[in-house]
């Protein structure tokens, strides 16, 4: 077995709606996994399991967006060296754009790398980009085959529950956007 080749296929051939449902499953699962990862990281670095995120619910959309974008390339058969480069670029770009947007729209910076060397506006730094590279490569090549197999077993249930999960997620996004935007404007006006 090649070190860079998954031992389980990514997923069976799907079409249209099935592809979208699978990608939504992956997005939701990785967004939740990102939330868990951040909570565990917070626990190890600060001793507190709770780290406030942008959304009120247990999701970190950045952790869902980056793997889904990477999977779109991986499923097209991208060479492992290309995937390695993309595992560096895509999560870093998602993190930078997310940080910039959150700061511009909500007047707040959820993470700050300004104390790290080789950083960009505090939203991105080389050290964490290298972490994302390793994490992303592991997800695409070793975790995703198991997630795809899980989806294969749960797809019928997911297809029924997906609208409920998406409604919950979109409600969380809408509520968060409204409440944080309102709070950010209030904080800006009281400076």
Automatic annotation (TrEMBL):
<feature type="transmembrane region" description="Helical">
    <location>
        <begin position="80"/>
        <end position="102"/>
    </location>
</feature>
<dbReference type="Pfam" id="PF06541">
    <property type="entry name" value="ABC_trans_CmpB"/>
</dbReference>
<keyword id="KW-0812">Transmembrane</keyword>
<protein>
    <submittedName>
        <fullName>ABC transporter permease</fullName>
    </submittedName>
</protein>
<dbReference type="InterPro" id="IPR010540">
    <property type="entry name" value="CmpB_TMEM229"/>
</dbReference>
<keyword id="KW-1133">Transmembrane helix</keyword>
<feature type="transmembrane region" description="Helical">
    <location>
        <begin position="156"/>
        <end position="178"/>
    </location>
</feature>
<feature type="transmembrane region" description="Helical">
    <location>
        <begin position="123"/>
        <end position="144"/>
    </location>
</feature>
<keyword id="KW-0472">Membrane</keyword>
<feature type="transmembrane region" description="Helical">
    <location>
        <begin position="20"/>
        <end position="41"/>
    </location>
</feature>
<feature type="transmembrane region" description="Helical">
    <location>
        <begin position="53"/>
        <end position="74"/>
    </location>
</feature>
